[in-house]
Amino acid sequence: MNIWSYIFKRVLLMLPTLIGVIAITFAVIQFVPGGPVEQALEELKGRAGVHESAGGGSAYRGRQGIDIDRVNEIKALYGFDKPPAERFWLMLKGFLTFDLGKSFYHHGDVWQLVKSKLPVSITIGLWTFFLTYLISVPLGIAKAVREGSRFDSLSSAVVLVGYSIPGFVLGVFLLVVFGGGSFLQWFPLRGLTSDDWATLSLLGKIKDYLWHITLPVLASVAGSFAVMTMLTKNTFLDEIRKQYVLTARAKGLSENKVLYKHVFRNALIPLVTGFPAAFIGAFFAGSLLIETLFSLDGLGLLSYESVIRRDYPVVMGTLYLFTLIGLAVKLLGDLCYVWADPRVQFESMAK
To answer: What's the CA gap between 84 and 315, in Å, rounded?
Structure first.
């Protein structure tokens, strides 16, 4: 089986998974109380009560309830005048062309709304992902080579302390110490850019951008790099103790050649298979707390607010995008697995 046949088969298998996730979430939403129609009706009843108490009259229709025609009008406004099966089918047809519908709360296109929030999530996610691997892999290798040394013990203590502190707690600490709290005012409290961003030069924009993302990225990286560091160390230790490494050393190969030509490729396999989870985790795991803490208007905050406000088009649209990205990255991880270990064949992975 060649690579294109494998990709085609995997895409065909992704479709039921994607549709299943969307269908389950859509079905759950049908039983959640307090939807947009109920909220609109409650708002109308509240206005009715205010008018009655202010005017003292009893002719207002809200006293006996909302008129049925008004209820049907509100249902049609939010698309709930159609049966659930029809609404689900129309939603799937729209998703095929990335037509994610209209937001009930923001009164705009969901896809445009998501795109407007992407810069924040991409910034935090990509920096977290790359810094995690850039720090963790070399540090893990150094710890494996120097196992039991003072460096290994001290770095393990630092790594475990970083792992034990939740990202949002570290974020609060960084803001208090370096963000103009009780000590130093080295970094800004909120946002990705300054108010005068448009007037800055190219170099000034780069410096301003890096200045703003330093604290949120540090808070996001702290916990994730600890896991990757220990995984790298343990993986390299397992490989170093194998027979083929002793054989390579006995042949007179230098330590660097043994480490990077033989050990590195085999030890890379678990790290590569962890790419999808690390990538998705960097983008979405914990993003809500980081975005809220540093006043960053990204996808995490948008998704949370949409659930609270029962903004179902945004909930379903973001779920569709997150699931699609997750499945695509999982496929990319499998392709990287084959690239890292040529002994793995597509036929065995497709079974």
So the answer is: 16
